[in-house]
Amino acid sequence: MTPDQPVPSRPAPPSRPTPPSRPFRPTAPQPLSEAAFRDLYRRLRGRAPDGGAERRGALDRLTPERVVAAAAEVRSGRTVSLAATVETRSGPDSPEPASHRMTAPTRGETCAPGLAFARDRFAMNVHGDVDTHLDALCHVIFDGELYGGVPASTVTPDGAWALTVDLVRDGIVGRGVLLDVPRLRGVRWLEPGDQVTAEDLAAAEAAQRTTAGPGDLLFVRVGHRLRRRTLGPWDVTRARAGLHPTAMDFLADRGVSVLGSDGNSDAAPSAVPEVGFPVHVLAVNAMGLHLLDWLDFEDLVPVCEQQGRWHFLCVIAPLRLPAATGSPVNPIAVL
Fold first, then answer.
1. Distances from the Cα of 31 to the Cαs of 28, 221, 278, in angstroms?
2. In whole angstroms, what is the distance from residue 36 CA to residue 288 CA?
3. How far, CA to CA in Å, does 258 sit from each of 178, 185, 213, 219, 310?
4. DSSP secondary-structure letter at 243?
5. Maximum alpha-carbon separation in the chain
6. Three-class SS of residue 127?
7. Backbone φ/ψ region at 178: left (φ over 0), alpha (ψ -120 to 50), beta
8. Contact yes or no for 173/334 (Cβ under 8 A)
9. Residue 103, pLDDT score
């Protein structure tokens, strides 16, 4: 099937998927040498779409026909936010929290007769380690290049001038698929440092009776938000659950267009000691995938369980920031 062919809607499963009777235990992933990582990088880059004239990367697979098919699968009209509440308090994972302050009204204006307006101001570090955001294709520089061989010199102190958030100014709308790895393994969350393998992802598909396909928005739950709420925040730069780099073969095989996680998709410590964020490099720079970091799936999971399906229409609307490398987002699942 080519990217331009329409995709028939997938019927909802006949019964509610249940967790495995025996927790799934994947083979422990091994660290990768820098040479093995570079071989993987070259192979995945060779499989990536060219992104067309606008260099939209893997979004080229998200055709209008696939959007229509995803919309046709909406059953209840239930909407669920996949974004976390913006963090305005300093903490071990938010040394630069977002700032929010009221600029009006003054005390006198709240008591005065007639018209007054409440006003406020907001600022944030888009690529922090706690707030939900989208990574544009210009976000990751590797060996002096961006995705598709675009020179990294196009990113300047005055802004980025290629592969920016402006590529998705009309939004990303498609079929979202949530794979719940803690549910598969029979735990509440993955511990910091745990790594999700391609074996995990394939087993989660089977357990949840769903399949990711070309153009889909793939979401991988590691349980980060539930752990943070239960035990409190920690320094995620040192330890966090995420995908093993070799799991990206699974995404290439499925032909997905977007990757999102309730972490930032990369585990820490890194499986490649010489590369701090190997999944970011493979996803954004090699494969042309837009990434969604620090999502929150805790409201979505019970709805998926109740409805007995783990796919849904998903709508992602970044801000109109033409020269930006990312944007805060509030993705909405429609079931």
1. 10, 22, 11
2. 20
3. 12, 24, 11, 8, 16
4. E
5. 71
6. coil
7. beta
8. no
9. 92
Residue 5: pLDDT above 70? no
How far apart CA 122 and CA 99 sit, in angstroms, is 6
Q: Taking CA 13 as the corner, what is the angle to CA 11 and CA 14, rounded to the nearest 5 degrees?
A: 115
List the chain domain ranges.
Answer: 34-85+129-334
Is the entire prediction scored with pTM above 0.85?
A: yes
The CATH homologous superfamily of the domain defined by 34-85+129-334: Putative cyclase (3.50.30.50)
Name the β-bridge partners of 177. 218, 311
Residue 267 CB burial class (10 angstroms; 0-12, 13-18, ≥19): buried
Give the tens place of pLDDT for each residue, 210-232: 999 999 999 999 999 999 999 99
DSSP state of 56: -
Check: CB of residue 216 under 8 Å from CB of residue 290. Answer: no
Cis? peptide before 318, omega within 30° of 0: no
3-state secondary structure (DSSP) of residue 15:
coil
Pairing of strands 290-293, 133-135: antiparallel
Q: Quick one: pLDDT at residue 50?
A: 80
* Nearest C-alpha neighbor of 51 from the set 323, 257, 254: 257
Question: So what's the pLDDT on residue 173?
Answer: 98
Residue type present at position 156:
T
- Cis amide leading into 105 (omega within 30): yes
| 263-316 pLDDT per residue, tens | 999 999 999 999 999 999 999 999 999 999 999 999 999 999 999 999 999 999
∠ Cα 267 292 137 (to 5°): 100
* Number of residues that this document lists for the chain: 335
Question: Is the model's pLDDT at 51 over the cut of 90?
Answer: no
Q: Burial, 238: exposed, middle or buried (Cβ in 10 Å; 0-12, 13-18, 19+)?
A: exposed
Residues 6+ apart with CB under 8 A from 90: 97
